[in-house]
Specification:
This protein is mainly beta and 118 residues long. The protein has one domain. The protein contains two helices and eight strands, in the order αβββββαβββ. Strands 4-7-6-5-1-2-3-8 form an eight-stranded antiparallel β-sheet.
C-alpha cells in the first residue's frame, strides 16, 4: 500500500490527535509538537470505526494489520469488507519502548508541508 510508504517516509517524530468528528480522525505530525502551529503534516483516517491508541505518540511506523490482529479486533468490533486495520508501532509518553496501536478505517490521506504563518 503506497500510502503506508508515504506515512513511514514523513520526517516527523511527534504525532497527536487533533480532531475527531465520529467519522474522520485527524492527526497532526511534526518534529516537535510542543510549540503551537509547529506541525508540518496532517494525516486523516476516514470512515473510522475503532481507535485503540494514545493521543500523543512518537517515532511511529505504520503498517496493515495481520490476520491474527484482524481476528482479535473482530472480537471487539464488527469489521466490514471496506475496513482496513492500520497498525501503528510507536513510543508513548509513558514508555520509550515501542507498542502496537490500532485504528480501523476505510482509508487514510496525507496533507504535506503545512505552512503556518501564525
Amino acid at each position: 500500500m503506497i500510502i503506508l510508504e508515504q506515512l513511514n517516509s514523513l520526517s516527523c517524530w511527534d504525532y497527536r490527535f487533533n480532531k475527531f468528528d465520529g467519522w474522520r480522525l485527524q492527526l497532526i505530525a511534526g518534529t516537535n509538537l510542543d510549540y503551537p502551529n509547529s506541525h508540518t503534516d496532517e494525516i486523516e483516517f476516514h470512515g473510522v470505526t475503532y481507535i485503540e491508541c494514545p493521543t500523543d505518540f512518537y517515532h511511529a511506523k505504520f503498517r496493515l494489520g495481520t490476520k491474527k490482529e484482524q481476528e482479535r479486533l473482530n472480537s471487539i468490533v464488527s469489521l466490514e469488507s471496506e475496513d482496513t486495520i492500520f497498525v501503528i508501532e510507536a513510543e508513548t509518553t509513558g514508555s520509550i519502548e515501542s507498542r502496537l496501536f490500532f485504528r480501523v478505517a476505510e482509508n487514510v490521506t496525507i496533507k504535506n508541508e503545512i505552512i503556518n504563518t501564525d
